[in-house]
Amino acid sequence: MTEPPATPPATVQPTHPRWLLPVIGGLILSLVAASNIGNAVWAGWVETNPLGLIALNSSNKYLLATSINTEPVPFVTIAMLRLLAPDPLFYAIGYLYGPRALHWARNVFPGSEPLLEQAQTDDGAIRKVLNVLVVVAPNNLVCLLAGVTRFPIPRFVVLNVAGTIGRILLMRWLGLLFEDQIEDLLDVVARYQRWFLLGSVALVLAYVAWQALGRRGLIGGVEELEEELGDE
To answer: Which residues contact 146 (CB under 8 A, 6 or more apart)?
Structure first.
């Protein structure tokens, strides 16, 4: 009597701890909140608490503005830690969730379609592009793509840190090069500080509401993180 052919084993989808996505999402939201707070209070902090400002938000404009009234070592250290903070979170999302992370990224990073499509082809070209992007523009999307493509972690860390330090030093140099112009701008900010603060707070609140209500950007994307990537 012949035995029936063996049924091939079902493909087991990798699962991850249920707490992982909420933790990643919570950390991302905390960094987004810090950036928005920095955008709201910058006019009051840019001269009185410059290191506190770049601890909240180390975008280029704040690095330039604070480069002339901070010591180099704390400036570089705080800015580096703040800029690197979100990178392992997005790398982890890409590494752990692969193609599903690409689908999630389409709603979170508008205009990223060419890079996302290139990552889906898996022809090796995206790795060559990432060798450059991880150095010159290690933003959230680039870090996520590095994770999706299994970009080697040691290389990712070295290139990312080197590129981040280079960016900070470039902003420091440019700030000192244009010190007189920056001081003139800060004098204007100090003179009309109240209006800059009120305007900044209003703009930040409107932008956060636009993202949250329309489920756009990172704020809207984090709300959908578990729905899109959660293990079934």
So the answer is: 91, 94, 130, 134, 156
Instruction: Measure the CA–CA gap between 193 and 185, rounded to whole angstroms.
Output: 12
Q: What is the DSSP letter of 96?
A: H
Q: What is the CB neighbour count within 10 angstroms for residue 52?
A: 13
Radius of gyration of the chain (CA): 21
The torsion angles phi and psi of 76, rounded to 5 degrees, stand at: -65, -40
| One-letter amino acid of 71 | E
Residue range 34-40: mean pLDDT, rounded? 96
Query: Quick check: helix, strand or coil at residue 68?
Result: coil
Find the distance separating the first CA and the last CA of the chain, reported in whole Å.
Answer: 40
Give the CA-trace dihedral at 55, 59, 61, 65, to 10 degrees.
Answer: 20
Q: Among 75, 206, 96, 192, which Cα is nearest to 143's? A: 96
Region of residue 122 (phi > 0: left; psi between -120 and 50: alpha; otherwise: beta): left
Report the Cα 199 to chain-centroid distance in Å: 25
Tell me the torsion sign for CA atoms 41, 45, 46, 52: negative
CA distances for 89 relative to 5, 36, 118, 122, angstroms: 45, 19, 22, 22
Q: Which two tokens stand for residue 78?
A: 């705080």
pLDDT, tens only, 102-152: 888 887 887 777 777 777 776 567 888 889 999 998 899 999 999 998 999
Q: Residue 199 — φ and ψ, nearest 5°?
A: -65, -40
- Match 């920095």 to its residue by tokens: 38
